[in-house]
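At this stage, I needed to go through a protein sequence along with its fold in token form, as given directly below:
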Amino acid sequence: MTKIILRPTTLPDLPILFEQQLEAEGIAMSAYPAKDRGEFMRHWEGILSNPSVAARTILYKEKVAGHILCWKEGKYEQRVGYWIGKQFWGRGVASSAVRALLAEIKIRPLYAEVANHNLASRRVLEKNGFSLHETEDKISKFKLV
């Protein structure tokens, strides 16, 4: 198991997280477009000011490796999402971060979405007990009960 630390995301983390979401390979794997700096900062200000969102920075070897979130979408659905900087791929960081968040967040069911072509992210969810719930055109939805 990869040794990571989850801690609450803070404003000083945002410049690093901003740069990570600009990485072309990450954008291609996520199927979500990058945000410009203003849009990114407004988005994160909303996240950080919402007490119902669990926003955690992932630290790996004392470096910001990415982030992981749990939030309510719609009236009932709790979602999990994460972004790992490319330089930290392939080290078990995402799997360990999801495992750590699941130990903290006891709400079930939880849902997560991944691009159909992102086999690594699908595997992260499956290793942490999520199962395929439904598939749409470009996105697969996973569920943890």
In short: The chain has a mean pLDDT of 96. The CA atoms of residues 126 and 132 lie 8 Å apart.
